[in-house]
């Protein structure tokens, strides 16, 4: 949980790498779908491993913590299975990505409405991001026959998260204490 | 706790501690405002966003759970609603990551509550109100931590107690997840957060998994907390709320200068004996909100009817003030007290080698580094008007 100098540098470098990956996906449409799939499969394996580590270090001490162990084994297993399948159905991948985007968009719009009701002028940016996410969701659903559209949406999402990671790493975070 | 205790009961406690009705009203207002001072509100009135003492449901839904995001959440909830009970607690065979979370579990009569009350001394009614909110919550929110943590804050097997202890007649509590639905006391339907076995999920912040059970003064219940090694916790809210009330009166007598010191495990029980039956009647009455009863009790004590809480009451004064004069408005003083409290708690958590609330920089040793809003504390010390 520390955010010392080394961690900040690491996060900036990770952010840059993520942006480059997003740009590569965006520019190399032909290879991008395979790269995206590979990325998701690896992410699933990493999630499985992380859950197993989490179980060993923390969840085994809690009431009902066994569920974490089973979940870790499941994700690891499914991730390894998907890596070994050549043609993963396109629709499943799309649903996995787009549903998350839609939920995020709805939350942004609800937040914007909450801010607007408080008569604050800061609701517009929140509403804008919500509308962009919902629009991207609709576009992805309508154009489900054209993988390059989903790849483009996904690439923008990757670039955005890379930028957010860098901004977060550079933000001052210490709290001053006066004795 | 809700408005009934933080606003109306705090008014009663302040009056019984010797404050005038007007002062008691300001203390009660500040205590209740802790549950409403969100970033969204602060942006609206152009206040320091770091003075936020709570987060709305939508702010939480929107909150990032990366490291800075989690530290921000932990600072707010640990400082104002789940004050850690023992930052140096020990438990065998547990790793560092687990213990960092375990040590943030809220409990009354901690070293931190002593520091919180002492920090408020001489800082006005706003700081007193904030301290009373925190003190009362240490009783209501005990056994939960002010940081998102599945391994600490998850809980299961809730039963409402029919007697003093566990029995076969206890009523099983059924939880739903609709945040807009009201709790149903007759049928024992309550709302809680969705089960999420993700350590950092916002659903696992504080007492979300127990719904509003800790907020109802009449509730007696038992449950299994995730951190408790399968030992049942029996939570007796009427007793806890009574102790909270007595400790608030004791603390405010210290803050008024009637007592020389504030010590742990001291209550004003003897002096409040003549009101105990009235207070317990309010605390034990099965109802979702006890505001009317507390309001009537407060009127009986002071002869003044406390006005309904109005969130906008002091906003125009703050918005109209310019430059340095903002700091001397009612809300300006509230924000300074909130920043001082957050700074102190963050420092204590940091000094215990726990980074869940982020980094703390001692101004006297390393100068000013970090979030700009805290410069207001430096300015305040330079002016020599407290909180430093």
Characterization of the model:
The complex is a heterodimer of chains A (179) and B (388). By secondary structure, chain A is mainly α. Chain A has six helices and one strand. In chain A, helix 2 (29-57) crosses helix 6 (147-170). In chain B, strand 5 and strand 6 (233-236) form a beta hairpin. Classes of the chains: A mainly alpha (179), B alpha+beta (388). At the A-B interface, helix 3, helix 4 and strand 1 of A face helix 3, helix 4, helix 5, helix 6 and helix 9 of B. Strand 1 of chain A pairs parallel with strand 7 (360-362) of chain B, so a sheet runs across the interface.
Please supply descriptive tags for the structure shown above:
heterodimer, A: 179 residues, mainly alpha, 6 helices, globular, B: 388 residues, alpha+beta, four-stranded antiparallel beta sheet, two-stranded parallel sheet, 16 helices, 7 strands, 45% helix
The shape of chain A, in one word, is: globular
Helix content of chain A: over 70%
| Helix amount of chain B | 40-55%
- The first-to-last residue Cα distance of chain A is 25 Å
List unreliable stretches of 5+ residues of chain B.
Answer: none
What percentage of the residues of chain B does DSSP assign to strands (E)? 5-15%
Order of helices and strands of chain B: HHHHHHHHHEEEEEEHHHHHEHH
**Strand line-up of the largest beta sheet of chain B:** 2-1-5-6
Greatest contact between two chains: A-B, 38 and 65 residues
| DSSP strand count of chain B | 7
